[in-house]
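User: I've been trying to design a sequence by hand for this structure and keep getting stuck. Would you show me what you'd pick, starting by listing the structure so we're on the same page?

Assistant: Good idea, let's start from the same input. This is the structure you sent:
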């Protein structure tokens, strides 16, 4: 109980209230002039009713300024520091809606109004209490015109110290109660609204999407490259001294793979450089199906895996004329499938890429086109007691890439082979 009334937290809340009283002064002075003019040019400080009228008028004036942007973050920071309210209960940043602005205005007028009352009591009560406590000791304080309370005799004057102590105790209790009231009201009036929570959720979702994108890019670029380089180095080591030409080709493939991967890694890291647009512009462009499929196949074959490709443009369009985003995502999906074949496969890979007509949307509609990627290879020996039936992070990333374009990815055993099948909608046609 003592800490709640006179502890460190209670004293900090008292300071918060006094600051509110100081902030009300400009509004009070304006209201004082307005009330004085309305009352016929009188001095409102000479009239208690007019003083209270000016005080009452100053609160709506304060509420009007409470709708402006800086008020809420400033108030939330003061409440967090001086009132001990946890930061997670308070909103961050300016109010985004009129409902939030209205709550901020209500808080601003409550803080300044209660602060002015407590600040006024803090200025007036201590001197009065000191006088009352000194009444029994100073006879002149009991005589008019200095006497605050009439005491009929010296015996009754000894009640004055009790009255002074009671006034001080009342001031402390009032300040503690007002501070507790503001601390309880702060989460209600300064807490996040539904719009604030929605904006925060959207910001977190956007940040998570960026993180997932970077994770996919790093996995696809670096993971595939490391798998290819590992297999190429192992193959070169096995024939070292017997087939110099093969070793030379393997080392050249390792050099080319490493160089390309460094460029792609620099592009991904460029996304992390805030305020460095030049770094992002200078980064190597992301590979696409149209620009680097032949190179990807060559690097995979150099690692010792035979790849057969069936490219079927067909009447629905030419897959080499895909839009940049579709071509990029398709390239990453093919790269993931070839990487899985390198790591887990046990035989040649058959890759089929075709643009075909999608499901008919009904009479009067244009048939959509789809890019279909199908990759099959014999599965390798299981690494554990049960055969591998699902993919890892790479296949999940490939599925996410397909979903971004409205497509899908399927991976698993099919007719005794491991099959990866991706379908990417292309809309009305290729570009």
């Amino acid at each position: 109980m003592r800490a709640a009334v006179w502890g460190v937290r209670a004293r900090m809340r008292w300071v918060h209230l006094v600051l509110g009283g100081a902030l009300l002064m400009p509004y009070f002075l304006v209201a004082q002039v307005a009330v004085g003019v309305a009352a016929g040019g009188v001095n409102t400080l000479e009239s208690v009713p007019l003083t209270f009228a000016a005080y009452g008028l100053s609160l709506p004036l304060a509420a009007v300024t409470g709708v402006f942007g800086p008020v809420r973050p400033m108030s939330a920071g003061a409440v967090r520091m001086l009132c001990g309210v946890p930061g997670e209960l308070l909103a961050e940043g300016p109010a985004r809606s009129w409902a939030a602005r209205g709550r901020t205005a209500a808080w601003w007028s409550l803080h300044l109004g209660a602060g002015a009352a407590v600040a006024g009591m803090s200025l007036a009560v201590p001197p009065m209490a000191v006088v009352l406590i000194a009444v029994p000791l100073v006879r002149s304080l009991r005589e008019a015109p200095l006497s605050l309370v009439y005491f009929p005799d010296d015996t009754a004057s000894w009640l004055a110290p009790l009255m002074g102590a009671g006034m001080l105790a009342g001031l402390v209790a009032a300040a503690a109660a007002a501070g507790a009231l503001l601390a309880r009201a702060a989460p209600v009036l300064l807490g996040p609204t539904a719009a604030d929570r929605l904006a925060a959720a959207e910001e977190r979702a956007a940040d998570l999407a960026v993180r997932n994108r970077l994770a996919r890019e790093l996995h696809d670029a670096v993971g595939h490259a490391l798998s290819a380089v590992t297999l190429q180095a192992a193959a070169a080591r096995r024939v070292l001294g017997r087939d110099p030409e093969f070793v030379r080709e393997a080392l050249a493939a390792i050099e080319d793979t490493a160089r390309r991967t460094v460029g792609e890694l620099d592009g991904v890291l460029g996304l992390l450089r805030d305020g460095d647009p030049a770094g992002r512009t200078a980064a190597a462009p992301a590979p696409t199906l149209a620009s680097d499929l032949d190179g990807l196949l060559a690097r995979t074959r150099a690692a010792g895996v035979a790849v057969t490709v069936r490219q079927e443009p067909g009447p629905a369009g030419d897959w080499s004329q895909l839009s940049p985003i579709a071509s990029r995502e398709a390239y990453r999906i093919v790269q993931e499938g070839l990487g899985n074949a390198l790591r887990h496969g046990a035989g040649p890979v058959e890759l089929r890429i075709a643009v075909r007509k999608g499901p008919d949307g009904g009479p009067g509609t244009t048939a959509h086109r789809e890019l279909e990627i199908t990759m099959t290879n014999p599965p390798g020996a299981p690494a554990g007691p049960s055969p591998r039936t699902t993919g890892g992070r790479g296949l999940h990333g490939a599925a996410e890439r397909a979903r971004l374009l409205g497509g899908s990815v399927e991976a698993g055993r099919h007719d005794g082979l491991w099959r990866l099948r991706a379908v990417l909608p292309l809309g009305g046609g290729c570009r």
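That's my pick for every position. To get oriented when you compare it with your attempt: Residues 275-283, 361-366, 382-391 have pLDDT under 50 and may be disordered. The first helix runs from residue 2 to 6.
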